[in-house]
Amino acid sequence: MRVEDVMTRQVMTVDPGASLKDVARLLMDLGVSGLPVVDDGYVAGVVSEADILVKVRAVNPTRHGLGGLLFTEGVDVGEKLRALTAGDAMTSPAITITPHRPVAEAAGRMIDEGVNRLPVVSDDGALLGIVTRADVVRAFVRSDAEIVSEIREDVILRTLWIAPEDVTVAVENGVVELSGHVGTKTDAELAATLARRVPGVVSVASNVSWDADGDER
Predict the structure, then answer these.
(1) 82 and 35 in one domain?
(2) What is the residue-wise DSSP string for 155-196?
(3) Separation in Å, CA 13 to CA 23, 27, 41, 66, 132
């Protein structure tokens, strides 16, 4: 499953010149935590609730503690405090992803970067859509039959170039069991590794065997 399969294509965006008051109202009205800042169709950055909170926190400068330290880590607070527009306050460059990347990669990037959403862009940076944590979670709850189909077609056949009849794929409540026989130990290990990255998979047990004298690619 690719990012393009789960992303939202109609994306609400803001112009770099939008006032922070307007951005805050839009975040509240839409019930979202951040929006892409787009200039002439290209993603310039992302403005989020965190950028607005810097302004709010300035009203109460006596607030200290671990939470404040975590919040300001890696952030130029002075620059954020002086911000008047989305372009001033946004995080730039935006953390983005292209539509053909696996959903698992989008999930990993969100976790690693601590963000809730990724603008989906073309190779030259034009905005195509957005993928959120909620989109990834929805992909996780798909049916066992869909998981079987993706493992057989995308992992076994298209990625590893193994005949689907050589590997049996069984899935129950997201728990995958692989069995069969392939040419090399590498192929057997890759089949299990790649199956684990398929959205909706909870765990993988592999009983795939391989030729003892198989070429270890």
Answers:
(1) yes
(2) IIIIIT---GGGEEEEEETTEEEEEEEES-HHHHHHHHHHHH
(3) 10, 10, 10, 33, 15
Q: Is 90 exceeded by the pLDDT of residue 62? A: no
Main-chain dihedrals φ then ψ at residue 171, nearest 5 degrees: -135, 135
Question: Which structure tokens are listed for 199?
Answer: 């959205």
Same domain, yes or no, for 110 and 7?
A: yes
Name which of 22, 12, 37, 14 is nearest 84 in CA terms: 22
CA nearest neighbour of 137 among 159, 155, 170, 110 = 110
pLDDT (mean) for 11-30: 91
Query: pLDDT band at 69, cuts 50/70/90?
Result: very low
> Is residue 154 exposed (0-12), middle (13-18) or buried (19+ Cβ within 10 Å)?
middle
**20 and 87 co-located in one domain:** yes
| Closest-CA residue to 16 (of 90, 117, 77, 122) | 90
Q: What is the pLDDT of residues 139-189, one digit of tens each?
A: 888 899 999 999 999 999 999 999 999 999 999 999 999 999 999 999 999
Q: Is 45 a domain residue?
A: yes
Q: What stretch of H or E contains 72?
A: helix 66-72
* CA-based radius of gyration for the chain: 22
Is residue 215 in some structural domain?
no
58 or 141: whose pLDDT is higher? Answer: 141
CA angle 131, 199, 149 (to 5 degrees): 120
Is residue 168 within 8 A of residue 178, CB to CB? The reply is yes
Does 148 share its domain with 136?
Answer: no
